[in-house]
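Sequence in, structure out. First:
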Amino acid sequence: MNWIAARIKWIMLVSGVLTCTMFYAAIAPEAAVLSMFGAGIEGTVAELIARNWGVLIGLVGVMLIYGAYHPPSRPLALTVAAASKLCFAGLVLSHGQQFLGQQAGISIAVDLVMAVTFMAYLAGGARRSGAHT
């Protein structure tokens, strides 16, 4: 636990930069969805939703980067990021192994490591008594 707390700034920075890579879906939604899930998107609405998905995930990355430099915002940024990553993993896994052979499988593994790390940091918050690194 102390290891995470001592390195939370760098953990948040690396996690934030990795999460920001999903802005790519806002720029090239077809390519991003094909890379992530191995399937294309069809129609204007699907493209619009994929772009919005990329922006929202990218903004979570921006929150993590901001929280790395602004300790009072860390609990909110880490909570939102962990919830987002757990929801994504749960939604993909709810379809069985269909997408696990694609980039989504790697993303789920990385997202779950991040979410568990964030939750461990948050769970130790009461013991840190407000100490921010």
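Second:
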Amino acid sequence: MTPDYSFYTQQYHGNQIPEEEFPRLITRAGAYLARFPGVDKESEAYKKAACAVAEAWQTNEQGGDIASQTVGSWSRSFAQKKPKSDEQRLLEAAQIYLGGAVSPVRWV
């Protein structure tokens, strides 16, 4: 079951996604999570994972993680050794709540 905006703000305690953008992003998150069979779509963990993936999707659309930010005399920078790929960001967001149920497919 796809979480609604009320779940996002009240249970997940999200605040990154504006209400008008939420339906689009949560739909994409649900499609991403559908790639992983065996995930209980009725669980609270699934709903939280969908919210986390929706936020990660938003970050991907914005071009990735903040590397530098300046407002007046205030500034902030985050340095990373290796930036995350879009796919890695989505997968890590899902794994926070669903653990090993969402693993990348590795062919041997």
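Remark: DSSP finds four helices and two strands in the chain.
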